[in-house]
Structures are given as C-alpha cells and as structure tokens.
Amino acid sequence: MSNVLSEEKKQQVIALGKLGWPLRRIEQATGVRRETASAYLKAAGVVVCLPGWGRRAPAKPAIRMTPDSEAKPAIGVTPDFIAPFPEKQGAPSDPSPPSASVCEAYRELIEQGLARGRNGKAIWQDLVSDHGFAGGYQAVKRFVRTLRGPQRPEAAGIILTAAGEEAQVDYGSGPVRIQKCSRCRH
Questions:
Q1: Which of 8, 38, 82, 123 could in theory staple to 113 by disulfide, Cβ–Cβ 3.0 to 4.6 A?
Q2: How far apart are CA 154 and CA 137, in angstroms?
Q3: What's the confidence (pLDDT) of residue 54?
Q4: What is the pLDDT of residue 122?
Q5: b or e along 54-78 (b: 16 or more beta carbons within 10 Å of the residue's beta carbon)?
C-alpha cells in the first residue's frame, strides 16, 4: 500500500511545512508520518530542516521560498480542522473590539477585596464560593493586574554589619511562631 494522502491532507502538510513547522510537529498535528510528510514537502519544493546537532531552522522560511501559483494561503490553516488560527487583534479584517472581561460584573467586589489586602487567588476563591462566579482564576488575575496598574518593587534597606554585632527583629504581621530549643527542651 502506498502513502497517498487526500488533497486536503496534502495541502495541510504543505501549508504547515511552509510555516516552518518541523516534521515531528506536523506528524503530531496531522497524523501523517514524518517520512510521508517529508516526501510531499520535498515534492512541493519546501525545504525541510531535519533536527540535529548544530543545525538551525531558517529564521524566516517563507522568505526563502518562491510561492506556488496553485497553493492556497497558509492563513487560517489548522492542523485539526476545528477552528482557524486567530488573527492579530486590531487587524483591518477584525471588526469587533476586544470583549469585556467576565470580571467586569464583579468589579465592586474585586475592588473591595483589594482594599482589604486580599490577593487575586483569595478574591477568586471568594467569588466562586460566595457569588457563583463561573470565570477562571486567570481572568481574575488579569483583571486585578489591570486595576492595580504597574507595580514597582518595594525598596528594602540592606544593613551591613560584622557577624554578631547587631540583631534584627521582624515585627511582621504573620502568625506568632515559638520555636523550642532542641538541646535543653525549653
């Protein structure tokens, strides 16, 4: 039995090869064996760079190729035929503006949580358990980041002294921890 692909699979393999995908990734995405994909790519004039020590894939493989007059454009080609690749936001072909966050309806609760010193994870857990929030943690994390704005690291003073010259005590806000001496059991 020979390795003959449908025209659709053949075009898919060629399009992924023109995008610069390695043979292993093409095999994983399409289910077409590397040897078969390699033969179709070579027949189409697509340069395939095999993995190996010291070899590097071309930086921009599409620039080094001459376009085939019958080939379809690679935009919108997907390896699994489920949905096309998303195009860049703000492209002329994208008429819809970015959608609002699922957290927008909970803005007041999130702001209250931030005012109380809660972090994004705790706020998300509160929203899920107390208010039936269906969004994910990452959405809350992004929303909190936009509310807080860019944060600069806090300055910390460094004290340079000789060993045993000074002691430092941290009166932090964490729980009190008493550590007993292991030698004398006090």
A1: 123
A2: 26
A3: 46
A4: 92
A5: eeeeeeebeeebeeeeeeeebeebe
